[in-house]
Design goal:
This protein has 391 residues and is of the alpha/beta class. The chain folds into two domains: 269 residues, Alpha-Beta Barrel (TIM Barrel); 99 residues, no CATH class. Strands 1-2-3-4-5-6-7-8 form an eight-stranded parallel barrel, surrounded by eight helices. Helix 2 runs parallel beside helix 3 and helix 8 runs parallel beside helix 9. The radius of gyration is 25 Å and the shape is elongated. Bound molecules: manganese (II) ion.
Length: 391
């Protein structure tokens, strides 16, 4: 079994369909360019039957980025699959992603269909999709709450019908790592080399990344995820987190992705500039404070040897130096080091003045100071010193 893990990005589909995250076709195209640069393996660009905009987004992204696998979502019915196929007609690497719910809860209350009916519709949709494209993915919606015997039966049926990827989503974020890993392991065992097993987790209990990693350990080889973890409700697995877990702990996990991690931060920034909100400041990897060492003791250790408190080099995820925050708990040592990084050689007197201004300013601010503000304080101090001399 290969150790390459495929990154299926659904920022433009699951992410986009959540509150505050709607994107126009132009915005999706701009984001798609960044995702392509990042090196995602598959880009889910929309749900063509849902809207004209989604259809157009899939079509435009397929034309613009012919080297990327572009996926279009479709419920397991003729109309949806045909519409998805049409939106992908210019794609060089089209994927139809068809889904139907398989849990008894969904069958009873939402679909009002029997298990046999759902199984037949799933296989028929895959078969139809295969008449249009070679690359078909099937998702068993609410897979983690589906009877495993039935889930296995459906998975075998869709693979027999031509699906190359079988996705077992934790649609409602209900699963926990060991349990989810065991379920995924069972599906991997059942499907062998016939299909890639994929996972799609939601973060309702904060376990999306942990569940995805457990699934990879159990043999899944595709992770569905989004930039900044956006998506329905509490969001999807965060792309930047799951990728950096595998990269940072390569000593523990023998897996790798094709992601160019130095574009992670700019991808996060771009998404924040398009939708209505950014990641919380303490968000792993891309949050404003993710690499800020504010406490004096931490700063002191960090300045002596980075590895004392830093497990990820911020440059490896593309965080520009200027985004590192200094706060009122930062000591003189840290301030001096930052000034040197910014190209300023300070005299002792200048450092004293700066330090006092810095603490005064940081004291009544909760956010800490960015580099440009520190530069502003240095310049102000120097101007005032000159005026004092001139006066
Ligand atoms: Mn989802």
């Amino acid at each position: 079994m290969t150790n390459r893990v495929y990154i299926f990005d659904t920022t433009l589909r699951d992410g986009e369909q959540s509150p505050g995250c709607s994107m126009t076709v132009m915005e999706k195209l701009r984001m798609a360019r960044k995702l392509a640069e990042l090196g995602v393996d598959v880009m889910e660009a929309g749900f063509p039957i849902a809207s004209e905009g989604d259809f157009e987004a899939v079509d435009s992204i397929s034309r613009e980025f012919p080297w990327v696998h572009v996926a279009a979502l479709a419920r397991a019915c003729t109309l949806d699959v045909e519409r998805a196929a049409e939106s992908l007609r210019h794609a060089k690497r089209p994927r139809i992603h068809t889904f139907i719910a398989t849990s008894d809860i969904h069958l009873k209350h939402k679909l009002k269909k029997s298990r046999q009916q759902v199984l037949d519709e799933a296989a028929a949709a895959v078969e139809l999709a295969r008449r249009h494209v070679d690359d078909v993915e099937f998702s068993a919606e609410d897979g983690s709450r589906t009877d495993p015997d039935y889930l296995e039966q459906v998975s075998r049926a869709v693979v027999a019908a031509g699906a190359r990827t079988v996705n077992i989503p934790d649609t409602v974020g209900f699963s926990v790592p060991q349990e989810y890993g065991a379920l995924i392991g069972r599906m991997v065992q059942a499907l062998g080399d016939c299909a890639v097993v994929s996972v799609h987790c939601h973060d309702d209990m904060g376990l999306a990344v942990a569940n995805s990693i457990a699934a990879i350990e159990a043999g899944a080889r595709q992770i569905e995820c989004t930039i900044n973890g956006i998506g329905e409700r509490a969001g999807n697995t965060s792309l930047e987190e799951v990728v950096m877990v595998l990269k940072t702990r390569a000593d523990y996990y023998p897996f790798h992705t094709g992601i160019q991690t130095e574009h992670l931060f700019s991808a996060s920034e771009m998404l924040s500039s398009i939708i209505t909100f950014g990641p919380q400041p303490n968000k792993a990897i891309v949050g404003r404070n993710a690499f800020a060492h504010e406490a004096g003791i931490h700063q002191d250790g960090y300045l002596k040897e980075k590895s004392t408190y830093e497990i990820i080099d911020p440059r490896s995820v593309g965080v520009p130096e200027g985004k590192l925050v200094l706060g009122k708990h930062s000591g003189r040592h840290a301030l001096l080091a930052r000034c040197q990084d910014l190209g300023f050689e300070l005299t002792r007197a200048e450092l004293d003045t700066l330090y006092h201004r810095f603490v005064a300013m940081a004291d009544h601010r909760k956010k800490g100071l960015m580099d440009e503000e520190i530069v502003g304080l240095i310049r102000e101090g120097r101007e005032q010193a000159q005026e004092a001399v001139a006066g």
